[in-house]
Write a structure and sequence with these properties.
Blueprint (H helix, E strand, L loop, with lengths): L2 E4 L2 E3 L5 E5 L15 E7 L8 H10 L4 E6 L5 H20 L13 H21 L6
Antiparallel strand pairs: 1-2, 3-4, 4-5
């Protein structure tokens, strides 16, 4: 089953490598005999469908040229495979997304400074009233 990451990028099933192993967690005795954990691997560098400009972006933003997703959330191998495909597509979409705009530093407004000082003075007055009176 091919993986559609974006409308312009679809990874063919032949480029996806699957590994299955026994999973821990819920499932009782069934979990001891079935290979329900899924490990999905895809190599950005070896892919034939990724255009060069997207390949450069992916290689820059991903830690290595190989993306691996491991899923053992469900008892069913089929469901874990579906989740692994969704997770891989989400990771690639995040890596291909444009960076967020740079944060413009802001200063607190005069009113917020005034309110902050008033709240501090109120808190200080409350604590002063809690103290034991001094006998002079």
């Amino acid at each position: 089953m091919d993986l559609e990451v974006t409308p312009s990028l679809t990874i063919p099933a032949a480029e996806l490598q699957w590994k299955f192993s026994r999973s821990s967690g819920p499932g009782g005795q069934h979990v001891n005999t079935s290979d329900s954990r899924v490990q999905l691997t895809w190599s950005v560098a070896d892919s034939l469908v990724v255009p060069e400009e997207l390949r450069a972006v992916l290689l820059e933003r991903l830690v290595s040229g190989v993306v691996t997703v491991t899923v053992s959330e469900e008892r069913s191998q089929l469901r874990n495979r579906e989740i692994a495909l969704e997770n891989l597509a989400a990771r690639l979409r995040d890596a291909l997304a444009p960076p967020p705009p740079a944060r413009r530093p802001t200063k607190p407004t005069r009113g917020s400074k005034r309110r902050n000082l008033a709240a501090k003075q109120q808190r200080s007055a409350t604590k002063q009233q809690r103290q034991r009176p001094t006998s002079d």
